[in-house]
Amino acid sequence: MTRTTETLPSDYFEDKYKSDIDPWRFRTSGYEQEKYVATVAALTKPLYDMALEAGCSIGVLSRLLAPRCARLVAIDASATAIAAAKASGPSNVSFEVQRLPEQFPAGRFDLIVLSEILYYFSRSDLMRVAAGCVEAIAPEGEILLCHWLGETDYPLTGHEASDLFAEHVVTKMPVRVIVRNDVYRLERFLAK
């Protein structure tokens, strides 16, 4: 399998959602459902004032995060995915078309969730995403990462994406807890 080295373009995702509104079976896959339950269970606080979910897709995980957030900003590069997410999104969730790293949302977040998106970035763009997270994370905030560990043709593997991110946030987010590390890696970073 030949791996690309460039960040996947927005059109890649837009084309997928136009062909099939749930191309990765977020609504029906047992893998996805179990991963979402584990992700929400990994949260350390009962409620977050301001949260960011990057790569929200059609909003399946967003709906599970929403009860734990006073306000959740959920972003995706695909306008088609965001339109689907808005159709059934909770009122405390703001769904927005934005592309990382160029359009990192303004504000301070006490929770940032990056679920299965970092391996779509080139190494340099992943570093920019990590820098954006470090700048945006509130004192005592947390970041959750989750990445599938199987083989892909994306720019990075799940392990590479996770470890590169960790290298770039360690000074502000020194506490790294790997919650799960078999089919997917679920981990939490805590700000100091």
Description:
This protein has 192 residues and is α/β, with parallel strands linked by helices. It has one domain (10-190): Vaccinia Virus protein VP39 (Rossmann fold), CATH 3.40.50.150. It has helices spanning 10-19, 30-41, 60-65, 79-87, 123-136, 158-169, and strands at 48-54, 69-76, 93-97, 109-115, 137-148, 175-181, 184-190. A seven-stranded mixed beta sheet has the order 3-2-1-4-5-7-6, sandwiched between helices. Strand 4 (109-115), helix 5 and strand 5 form a beta-alpha-beta unit. Helix 5 (123-136) packs across helix 6 (158-169). It is globular, with a radius of gyration of 15 Å. The model has no long low-confidence stretch (mean pLDDT 95).
Summarize the structure.
By secondary structure, this protein is of the alpha/beta class.
